[in-house]
Amino acid sequence: WNGLMIAALAMGARVLGDESYLQAARRAADFVKENLRRPDGRLLARYREGESEYLAYAADYAYFIWGLIELYEAGFDSHYLALALELSEDLNKYFGDQKEGGFFFYGLDAEQLLARPKEGYDGAMPSYNAVAALNFMRLARLSSDLSWQEKAQQAMDYFAAEVQEYPTAHSFWLLAAIFQIYPGSEVVVAAESENQA
């Protein structure tokens, strides 16, 4: 939920030019970074009365990474992009299905249950798998590291039949597909200082 709010605020700041939205998004992201992470960097799911507990799920990672990417694009503060890349490594490490593609809901380090679900449909919130795939495509372009694109493609391939059968239940996957099919243009501005750019 935090990541969804951060993404919405950062996007609102960029589209509307409202600095107060950008500041609110930064405060929220910084709070999560400082209060909902273990010393090893693993995200946690709950903060209450000064205590952080419970390992975060794949959805927590995907939504927070989305928020960080939007925050980077709204203010171009590179430390948010660096954090998005770092957390994406963790998302892939703890949740990635290295054989078939996509992401399990629970991490490798979580309590071992009978099954590790991997969900692709949109409910009240977008599919965390679709959000993660779109995040990885965006990170591939922002970082010039095409291995992120490969990971996104593996997830898209895994869920392709499900999306084709029920496209209305997978609208965020369709958004990711549009992003992949129509990559847009990249503009690089090179200058000796920020003031010249």
Automatic annotation (TrEMBL):
It comes from the Bacteria. One of its GO terms (biological process) is carbohydrate metabolic process. InterPro entries: 6-hairpin_glycosidase_sf (IPR008928), 6hp_glycosidase-like_sf (IPR012341), Ssp411 (IPR024705). PANTHER family: SPERMATOGENESIS-ASSOCIATED PROTEIN 20. This is Thioredoxin domain-containing protein. It comes from Syntrophomonas wolfei.
